[in-house]
Design goal:
The protein contains 3 helices and no strands. With 86 residues, it is mainly alpha-helical. The protein has one domain. The radius of gyration is 17 Å and the shape is flat.
Length: 86
């Protein structure tokens, strides 16, 4: 029987957390009752924290490399998205 490698386990965990945050976001957006909505938002925040922990763990181990962003591209993104909210 083949065993999963650490990278595969963490990748699965990250994928699961992304799916959970999508669902809790949808649930919180569709709540009619304020108390239930607040509970969903609390759970959503916890799920985001878990997702960040898994991502950081993968990144630190080199399983999820991210290239450094060029300052020009950062500035362009800031300009593009700040213009959207004016």
């Amino acid at each position: 029987m083949a065993q999963l490698q650490e990278k595969d386990i963490l990748g699965d965990a990250l994928s699961t957390q992304k799916h959970c945050t999508d669902n809790y976001n949808t649930f919180s957006n569709e709540c009619v009752h304020e108390d239930l909505r607040n509970t969903m938002l609390d759970i959503l925040a916890e799920e985001h924290n878990m997702q960040q922990e898994v991502f950081n763990s993968m990144h630190e181990r080199g399983y999820y490399p991210t290239p450094d962003a060029e300052q020009k591209k950062i500035d362009e993104a800031k300009q593009k998205f700040s213009a959207s909210f004016k």
